[in-house]
Amino acid sequence: MTINQSGWRPTMTEKGGESAASTFTGNKALMLEEALIFEIGSTETTGVDFTGTPAESDAAMPAKAYLAGLEREAPIGLPGLSEPEAVRHYTRLSRQNYAIDLGLFPLGSCTMKHNPRLNEKMARLPGFADVHPLQPVDTVQGALEVIHQLAHWLVTLTGMHSVAMSPKAGAHGELCGILAIKAALAARGEDRRVILVPESAHGTNPATAAFAGFAVEDIPATADGRVDTAALKARLGPDVAGVMITNPNTCGLFERDLKEISDAVHAAGGYVYCDGANFNAIVGRVRPGDLGVDAMHINLHKTFSTPHGGGGPGSGPVVLSEALTPYAPLPFVEQRDGRFELVEEETAGEHHAASFGRMVAFHGQMGMFTRALTYILSHGADGLRQVAEDAVLNANYVLRSLEDVLDAPFGGAGPCMHEALFSDANLAEGFSTLDVAKGLIDEGYHPMTVYFPLVVHGAMLVEPTETESKAALDQFVGALRSVAERAKAGDPALKTAPHFAPRSRLDETQAARKPVLVWKDAEPALAAE
Amino acid sequence: MRYLPLTPSDRDAMLATIGVASIDELFVDVPEAARLSGPIAGLPDHASEIAVERHMTALARKNIAAGDGPFFLGCGAYRHHVPASVDHLIQRGEYLTAYTPYQPEIAQGTLQMLFEFQTQVARLLGTDVANASMYDGSTACWEAIGMARRITRRGKAILSSGLHPHYVSVARTMAKYTGDVLETGTPELVPDTDYHALAEAIDADTSCVVVQYPDILGRIGDLKPLAEACHAKKALLIVVVTEPVALGALKSPGEMDADIVVGEGQSLGVGLQFGGPYVGLFGCKEKYVRQMPGRLCGETVDADGRRGFVLTLSTREQHIRREKATSNICTNSGLCALAFSIHMTLLGEKGLRDLARVNHGAAAAAAERLQMVPGVTLVNTSFFNEFTLELSQEARPVVRQLAENGILAGVSLGRLYPGEGSLANGLVVAVTETTTAGDVDALAGALEEVLK
Amino acid sequence: MSRYFTEDHEWIDVDGDIGTVGISEYAQSQLGDIVFVDVPEDGKELTKGDEAAVVESVKAASDVYAPASGTVLEGNPALSDTPELVNEDPEGDGWFFKITLSDPSELEELMDESAYATFVSKL
């Protein structure tokens, strides 16, 4: 016999019972509440045994302690959990998070692509994971070679002259580039004080320039979402140190005039910093070096798939032009006679005298380098080019599939790059981008980037990335369309979304007015009289 | 390509929906001169998992791993045993592949973990509050100096000679651009810290005094008198802890009235990783919280009155404050903070104290054993799990020679302070729960051989 | 006592040579829930137009400028614990700081209540 030839599917036989309004535990089946470790743990409990550890025979305090009489006596208040309790605690907590592994994560400007697990496996090889940064260089030749190989790829893919590998994240990389510009100007004996930053820039750009002591001046955007080249050129002069431009920009558009801008900035004696946050859109198809860029950070956690980890660690190597290379930070890796050397303060005088100095202890985010190199080798030159193409294809597909229902302020001007930008222009009175975002949560998606870039009212920035299938995109488009239609129709349920998430909208005002940043144990109960 | 789901027919269908004939039409905004016609020459094409794994494994094998033999390096990065469950848990996709918790309704896992982390860190450091982590100890140290400048509106920081030289280098780089004046010095191979001299040097222009505890040579000093001296002149005391396990045995800097305490959290959960990624710890007194850099997680309630957590006080940060932000920092070290927090939860107070006791006991035994070697003098009279030996000859070649024999003997001060003749014979040795008595014997024997 | 307004939505009440400064009802409605106010220290010298105070909502921080030059007499101590006063009573209990005016003639450049109402109605 053939089972279920007709394709029958079970349905509810009669009208279902009333759903339980609440449960004893507060749990809802697989949606589990979890208390804090301070509520469930105890300072007497531990999940680590020291019996039989190598140094256990010395475990008793030595006859003579060497602690300068500063032994910690007061309780610390650190609760412990046994291993099963700890595994359960963190597993239950994890299930309250959205993640790429669960679904499309369309956070514009953040490039939430799949994180290949081979990267994780390679980073955990003891020869990478269990190596100390201050070991003699003869014992870490493989680690230095990883840095060297990754550096070669980054320099070649960007068409630049060199790369500073040590910055810890994108913003740290921006700082690296800006400090190199400052050092180059100082070497020329010039004290240029102004950095020009387009209005649409990431907040880190002005924050970085201000940190380095520059005055930040905004450059307006044109009606088509790009830098106003004429305004920028008009502002150039002997006080302008340089510009910080994001390309592709935060509206998801390619800055067509970047080369022209670079030439003008160079002619006026300044430097061009490119925010490389969106390199994923052009990797393998365009080399920023060909556009006259002097410095650009690359977020390895965006373009090169190292995990975002719930907010870091990032990694932000900075590729540099020939003009800025002499000022790159310490340390860096050099290959000499088949051997890899680490140029640090000691040898800098000989090899790298103009360096602006050290930005970080040790050599940068090695654990991210191994992952990024693994990713790059997996894709190769052909695969990386395909990455950019598919990322751009996916974004344009989303743009064209939704522009009839959501306002796409730059949609008429041509294709986008890796992300599609919408505004709140069509929504019903009283409905905002925030409501669309929260509605998407109920549909099982992480919302897109909202209210950024600032140049578009109620911005919604959708970056699907290349690791989404067409079927995944179609489902997402359907979901966003549905939510957008509800927002246009003024569906009041949207104002209180999400309804199906572990939490409804959180009171951020109260959190900021009376900050509770650490757990305070309850006061001991007053003794009964 | 195994990571790219689109098929050729998908691509064709999508191009048709978009209304273009080819992918090139989507790149029309790129000036013609800058368009690359095909894959960049000179780079290899895509490769199988097997091929990549073989390539990376071959590179990894060119390194000597800490676990390959006797190992004694510290100086800001320490080898501790990390329970297996830590690495398992941080690899759950809901942590590994999540973003910064900007949508709190679907990020309570990360947010609650950060709230727990902040509390653990504050209790460990003895501070009122702690943030959701920084890049690492060295950048946290610099951020603390900047924060002290904002609070005191003074521009001179006095850095202890016992502060990790890389941390000093980072501060020196940044100070060139902010105009902060840094007073620094080189340590001496003597048993005492320089805290007393630092206290004398504080004046009306001093924003802060920065000391490491235990310091780069492993020495421990009482912070209380220094805190008093700082506060008498309205300067802040910043304390840097590069080995958080030490605070399982030692009074916390906060207990001794430090104003800002920063640290490197790598020891717990993170692993050596050739220097990164690590996790910066950052705590301070409550009254300074609005001058703190970095992300903060706070408790609140949702619309139904249930407890929940959000990122808060974000008006300090770059995405709102732009050029007026307290820092340009945009990320934290989330996954490393999670690893730290899980390891700390597995330890609990009992486990942390045990771990600290095992470390100190093993280090004390090692120090006593090693100073019996002819040509070796123990500099320290105080230390936790790391101490400095003065050898009868330059330490750096000794370290290299021992490395050839598979013994990673420690960090020579010549590596950290090149050109400082008075430190050339110094060797900093770290001993943890992973070090066996046999390892110490091997080091002692090898030193005896070389120093003959 | 007379009240003046600036185009940046500060108000100032003047009584003799003492001015009391706050932000307008319109400004608080635009900012939303106020979570923090940073008022200037006593004795701080301000020139008209200087950044004098900061007012923060959850997602925005705005500078409050000195409507006139002078020396800060005191900041509103109530705002540190109850910043919501700025929402509840912006032109009364939610005042930011008092200032001893050094040049009362500067007030002539400011708007009076009806001029400000007209100004706001055009925004």
TrEMBL record, chain B:
<feature type="domain" description="Glycine cleavage system P-protein N-terminal">
    <location>
        <begin position="1"/>
        <end position="444"/>
    </location>
</feature>
<keyword id="KW-0560">Oxidoreductase</keyword>
<dbReference type="InterPro" id="IPR020581">
    <property type="entry name" value="GDC_P"/>
</dbReference>
<dbReference type="InterPro" id="IPR015422">
    <property type="entry name" value="PyrdxlP-dep_Trfase_small"/>
</dbReference>
<protein>
    <recommendedName>
        <fullName>Probable glycine dehydrogenase (decarboxylating) subunit 1</fullName>
        <ecNumber>1.4.4.2</ecNumber>
    </recommendedName>
</protein>
<comment type="function">
    <text>The glycine cleavage system catalyzes the degradation of glycine. The P protein binds the alpha-amino group of glycine through its pyridoxal phosphate cofactor; CO(2) is released and the remaining methylamine moiety is then transferred to the lipoamide cofactor of the H protein.</text>
</comment>
<comment type="similarity">
    <text>Belongs to the GcvP family. N-terminal subunit subfamily.</text>
</comment>
<dbReference type="Pfam" id="PF02347">
    <property type="entry name" value="GDC-P"/>
</dbReference>
<dbReference type="InterPro" id="IPR023010">
    <property type="entry name" value="GcvPA"/>
</dbReference>
<dbReference type="GO" id="GO:0004375">
    <property type="term" value="F:glycine dehydrogenase (decarboxylating) activity"/>
</dbReference>
<dbReference type="GO" id="GO:0019464">
    <property type="term" value="P:glycine decarboxylation via glycine cleavage system"/>
</dbReference>
<dbReference type="GO" id="GO:0009116">
    <property type="term" value="P:nucleoside metabolic process"/>
</dbReference>
<dbReference type="InterPro" id="IPR015424">
    <property type="entry name" value="PyrdxlP-dep_Trfase"/>
</dbReference>
<comment type="subunit">
    <text>The glycine cleavage system is composed of four proteins: P, T, L and H. In this organism, the P 'protein' is a heterodimer of two subunits.</text>
</comment>
<dbReference type="InterPro" id="IPR049315">
    <property type="entry name" value="GDC-P_N"/>
</dbReference>
<dbReference type="InterPro" id="IPR015421">
    <property type="entry name" value="PyrdxlP-dep_Trfase_major"/>
</dbReference>
Automatic annotation (TrEMBL), chain C:
<dbReference type="InterPro" id="IPR000089">
    <property type="entry name" value="Biotin_lipoyl"/>
</dbReference>
<dbReference type="InterPro" id="IPR011053">
    <property type="entry name" value="Single_hybrid_motif"/>
</dbReference>
<dbReference type="InterPro" id="IPR002930">
    <property type="entry name" value="GCV_H"/>
</dbReference>
<dbReference type="InterPro" id="IPR017453">
    <property type="entry name" value="GCV_H_sub"/>
</dbReference>
<comment type="subunit">
    <text>The glycine cleavage system is composed of four proteins: P, T, L and H.</text>
</comment>
<dbReference type="GO" id="GO:0019464">
    <property type="term" value="P:glycine decarboxylation via glycine cleavage system"/>
</dbReference>
<dbReference type="GO" id="GO:0009249">
    <property type="term" value="P:protein lipoylation"/>
</dbReference>
<comment type="similarity">
    <text>Belongs to the GcvH family.</text>
</comment>
<dbReference type="InterPro" id="IPR003016">
    <property type="entry name" value="2-oxoA_DH_lipoyl-BS"/>
</dbReference>
<comment type="function">
    <text>The glycine cleavage system catalyzes the degradation of glycine. The H protein shuttles the methylamine group of glycine from the P protein to the T protein.</text>
</comment>
<keyword id="KW-0450">Lipoyl</keyword>
<dbReference type="InterPro" id="IPR033753">
    <property type="entry name" value="GCV_H/Fam206"/>
</dbReference>
<dbReference type="Pfam" id="PF01597">
    <property type="entry name" value="GCV_H"/>
</dbReference>
<feature type="modified residue" description="N6-lipoyllysine">
    <location>
        <position position="59"/>
    </location>
</feature>
<protein>
    <recommendedName>
        <fullName>Glycine cleavage system H protein</fullName>
    </recommendedName>
</protein>
<feature type="domain" description="Lipoyl-binding">
    <location>
        <begin position="18"/>
        <end position="100"/>
    </location>
</feature>
<dbReference type="GO" id="GO:0005829">
    <property type="term" value="C:cytosol"/>
</dbReference>
<dbReference type="GO" id="GO:0005960">
    <property type="term" value="C:glycine cleavage complex"/>
</dbReference>
